[in-house]
Amino acid sequence: MSRIRKHVERLHPYAPGEQPKVRGLIKLNTNENPYPPSPKVLAATQQAVDGRLRLYPNPTAQGLRARLAKLHGVGVENVIVGNGSDELLALATRAFVEPENDCVQYFTPSYSLYPVLTDIHNARRNEVPLPADFSLPSVKELRASKQWDFKAALTFVTTPNAPSGRGYATADLDVLCRAQKGVVILDEAYVDFAPKNAMEIASQHGHVLVSRTFSKAYSLCFQRIGYFVGPAKLIEALDKIRDSYNVNGLGQVAAEATLKQLSYYRANFRKIIQLREWTTEKLAGFGFQTLPSATNFILTKPPRFAARTWLKKLREKKILVRWFSDVRVKDYLRITIGSEREMAALLKAVKRILKD
Ligand SMILES: Cc1ncc(COP(=O)(O)O)c(C=O)c1O
User: Fold this and answer.
1) Interface predicted TM-score of the whole assembly (ipTM), two decimals
2) From the CB of 33, is ligand 1 less than 6 Å away?
3) Residue 351, CA distances (Å) to 280, 287, 306, 314 in order
4) Which has the least CB within 10 A, 51, 155, 161, 308?
């Protein structure tokens, strides 16, 4: 007799990108930032490692929420902080979606956690394919397609999109949000590398939340800090169902210190964006077709060999990139923009592979 619920036995967990145990690999597979946190953030975090570790952290991440509220020009009641934005995305399915009856909706390809969360919650998935160029379909096109559900209890929109890297116009997102009856989450995990963001939409509607993370742009994956901004009523619902101490103390310290050093991080965004454009151009010289990106990664169609073969060949040269089996993107590699040295190593490896 199994002691595990049948529903749980049938679940497939989220497959995170490989975190290699061997040293010396160049990691361009999980969209981490190549630059370390600001020295002041490291110092603040190190200084917090003392007798305080025996105490519980602030249960509502009050100081951090106050700073985030100020940054975005909203009230503290409009902000919730999570153990990474992944935690908040999971809480959203639990707070806004009735299991079995309701549907969670998202475009494909987009963040591969959404189907996992939907299945865990035993809700219906509504997966709507993006067009071949991964652009955002207009409301008119969505109505005509008859696949899109304007009454979906919860809609996730990854913007800029992952893994395509494509950015979406705020005005287009606003029109889509207006057409939806249920909750919409604009997942802006990569937005700091884009020319625009949709944060203003979160304050204009009663049903739109914007999701952000310190992981990618703020070099803080290790500390697991993400947050939502949106209407107080929705934030309050999420707050009711989170764990009492969901955000660890050192993470709160590191994130607060980060918000005092924004110019350090903004300089890094500029470097990464420049390097993204440089890498795209250099790869084009080798016959790679790269989609325009508004993120810290590129989706690129390699020449000569299948993308999956490139994944193996690059790994043999100690470079980790990401390949997805999804039919829409199986001909592409997703490559995180690393440091100058790492991107030079990538190009050197590409040259060698094409020569061998
Ligand atoms: C689109 C998207 N949203 C959210 C996340 C999760 O970020 P966090 O580290 O804050 O949980 C990721 C991480 O890969 C992502 O790609």
Assistant:
1) 0.99
2) no
3) 14, 11, 16, 11
4) 51
